[in-house]
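I'd like us to work through together how a protein chain folds, taking it slowly. To get us started, please write out a protein record for me. Go ahead whenever you are ready, and we will take it from there:
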Amino acid sequence: MWNSISNRADYIRDVGNNLESLEYEMERLRRTKEDVEARLDCEENEWFQRTHEVTDWLERAQRLEASVEEIIQEGKQEVQKKCLGGFCLYDCCSSNQAGKKVSETLKSVAELITLNSMCWYGISLVTWWMRGLKGGVGKTTLLKKVNNKFLDRSHSFKPVMWILVSKDAEVERVQELIRNELNIPDRVWENQNVDGKAAEIFRSYPSEFSGMGDHVFPILKFSYDGLSDDTVKKCFLYCCVFPEDHDIEKNELIELWIGEGFLDKFDNIYDARNEGEFIVGSLKFACLLEDGVRYRFSTKRVMMHDVIRDMALWLAHENGKKENNILVQDHVTSVKAHGLTRWKEAVRASLWGTSFTSLSETPFCPNLQTLLVGRSHLRMFPTGFFHLMLALRVLNLSENQELRMLPEGIGELINLHYLNLSLTSIGELPVGIKNLKNLKILLLDDTYFLTKIPKEAISSLFSLTIFKHDEGMEDIPPFLYNSKPMTGHECFRNLSLVDILLCSMVNLTWLAHAPLLQTLLVSRCNLLTEVIRGDFSNGATEEYPDLFSNLTTLYLSELPSLEWICWQAWPFAELKEIHVINCPNLRKLPFNSNSAKNSLKAIKGDKSWWDGLLWEDETVKLVFASKFQDETLDS
């Protein structure tokens, strides 16, 4: 009896304090309700709808808000009646009821405020949502918290399971864990194969495994729709032409985009490459691309997550309506694997795998613009293979290490802009290549057996912008340039990027015939002693005023014999960066106080190399000292 009287006395005595707390908490509830409604106005649309929990919370908040004002007024009236140290002799029962009502309402308001954070945390505002996160940022920890929160409170889902899957987990083990959670009986489970067990799981909760194209991909598409413009979207969709789990060098991907014409709005290759770098960064930021494996001596690589790639294919197939416009076949055995009739509709096709050594069939591909064939044992193409794909713009045959020859028919691909023969065993370029007047990019990296480049095959490539060839070249054949500037053969005229690796050249004087050169990369050429030959550089500023006039980036790496870039100071009017790595005998840069005067941003190299450089005078050294960036490698 005393406890009952004491509780009633507490209600009456604390009514004043509780009223103040109730008014404070009610104001918090109003602000929280306004925040919820503002978020709904911002985020709710035809796809993202409020959950039942959010609707219920808003209705409870509205009802509570309406009743609290009346309760506060009643409480204030009782406070005014209080006397005798907090107990009222007149209508004590009324005061007790009012005090109790204020106390309980205070608890309800505080609980509703707390429930708001639970509602947003446990159940999202939207029915579907996706967040792409990198590794090591706390995904597992967060998922554990979400899982535990679902276990603590009611929700509209059926099973909520925590299944831990290791990277090398077996399918049967994962299925067993899920089976246990779903309580599938032994009599149903036993004597089932992997596919049968999967079917049983799907039958247990069929609503949770709806069609990817009907439900999942449209949701993922919001990341795609958020991309900045059509060019970025084209570049993203292009990545689905590679097989599952395939990573690609970032530079190679950008060059493919250039070959496809996605970056044609830029007048020069430098700006196009910069835009390509920006697009790769944008796609990674949107979690539509991720970093691939990076190997020693290789550049950065990127790849697509399997689910993102499937979504990209779905979009490229026009939401699944045109399955034949993009053909991607891994572990292919023949062209027939796709069905020859499907090739008639194909715009892009890629064939990958070590299971085929020849392509005896000749598909009819009037619309085909892109053909990638890689990582196979292919040795040759049939003579007429390219006759029926004259719209081809990009042909990538790299990483077919047993490919030894190309058919002359390749010369019929007059619309070709990109040709990659890197890492093949081709011994000779066919003369027919001379007809590829639109070819902008020719890549011959690691073509160890290429010993013959016929004069007719390459001297007519007037549109050539990017040319890469390495491994054993002793010199550029003299027919590729003329002793007189920019007359006769002009196949170097449009070159803007030159990448030289593992060659036996002693100098690169032929670069004088590439006036639009913007990027020069030279690595691991043990015999290279000078970039521009000494007797040539004397007086060359008058005869070749455009030499290095557009050069923006100079990268020199692991050149043990290199002593000179030029024998005399050069203007380098556009030079922005020079990187020097492991070039111990390069003791002088071709700079005077007017070189790269308004353009140079950085000279990067080892501190000991910089300290050992020789200068015309201390004034010139001081001019460039502020540009030096120490990139000393840790020992």
The mean pLDDT is 77.
